[in-house]
C-alpha cells in the first residue's frame, strides 16, 4: 500500500536554491544548457509568483564554483543568501539551517547543482530533521543520467518526492480559477507550446466579449 498523498501547499512550502553557480553548472550534462537554465529560472519564477519564502546558498563562490546565476537573485533580491565558506553539505552550515528554520515552513522544495551532492546531501539532512522534501528534478543537474538516477533513487528511498517544475507550479496552484492568466503567463514564458494554449484562450475570450 502506497503512502498517503502529501501534496505541496503554498502556505506550508519554502524554496531552497542550492549552488546554481556558473562554474558548477558547467558540470551539468544530463540536460541541455538551455533546457536546464530555463527550468532553474522557471522555478525561481514559481517561488516569486507564489510568494514562497526562499533561501539561496552558494558554495565557495569566490573559487572555481563561481557566482550564483544572476536571474535567481534578480527574482529574489530580499531572500537570505548564504555564502558557505567551505561546507559541501549546506545543512552543515549553521546560517543556512537557521534561514530555513526562520521560514517557519515544513515543506521544502529543493533544487541545485549537483544533484547527487549539493541536492542529495541537503535533502537527506532535511528529511532527518523532520522536513517533507520535494526535489525539483529538472532544475537540478549532474554529470550524466547514471549519476542522476542513482541520486534520485537514494533520495526517493529516504522519503523525498521527485517532481518537475511544471508539476510544482500546478500542485501549488490547485485551481485555475485562483489566477488563470497569472499562472498561464508564467508557464508561457518557459514553455513555448504553452504559449499557444494561452493565445487560443485569449482569442476565445475576445470572441465571447465580442
Automatic annotation (TrEMBL):
Its taxonomic path starts at: Bacteria, Pseudomonadati, Planctomycetota, Planctomycetia, Pirellulales
Instruction: Report the InterPro entries cross-referenced here.
Output: Hydrolase_YcaC-like, Isochorismatase-like_dom, Isochorismatase-like_sf, YcaC
**What protein is this chain from?**
Nicotinamidase/pyrazinamidase
Enumerate the spans annotated as Isochorismatase-like domain.
14-164
Amino acid at each position: 500500500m502506497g503512502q498517503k498523498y502529501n501534496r505541496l501547499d503554498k502556505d506550508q512550502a519554502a524554496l531552497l536554491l542550492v549552488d546554481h553557480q556558473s562554474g558548477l553548472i558547467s558540470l551539468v550534462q544530463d540536460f541541455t544548457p538551455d533546457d536546464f537554465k530555463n527550468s532553474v529560472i522557471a522555478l525561481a519564477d514559481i517561488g516569486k509568483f507564489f510568494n514562497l519564502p526562499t533561501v539561496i546558498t552558494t558554495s565557495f563562490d569566490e573559487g572555481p564554483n563561481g557566482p550564483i546565476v544572476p536571474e535567481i537573485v534578480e527574482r529574489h533580491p530580499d531572500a537570505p543568501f548564504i555564502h558557505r565558506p567551505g561546507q559541501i553539505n549546506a545543512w552543515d552550515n549553521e546560517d543556512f539551517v537557521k534561514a530555513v528554520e526562520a521560514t517557519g515552513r515544513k515543506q521544502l522544495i529543493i533544487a541545485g547543482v549537483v544533484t547527487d551532492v549539493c541536492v542529495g546531501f541537503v535533502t537527506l539532512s532535511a528529511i532527518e530533521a523532520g522536513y517533507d522534501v520535494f526535489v525539483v528534478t529538472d532544475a537540478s543537474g549532474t554529470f550524466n543520467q547514471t549519476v542522476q538516477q542513482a541520486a534520485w533513487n537514494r533520495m526517493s528511498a529516504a522519503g523525498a518526492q521527485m517532481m518537475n517544475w511544471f508539476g510544482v507550479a500546478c500542485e501549488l496552484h490547485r485551481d485555475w480559477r485562483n489566477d488563470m492568466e497569472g499562472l498561464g503567463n508564467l508557464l508561457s514564458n518557459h514553455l513555448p507550446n504553452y504559449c499557444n494554449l494561452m493565445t487560443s484562450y485569449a482569442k476565445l475570450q475576445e470572441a465571447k466579449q465580442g
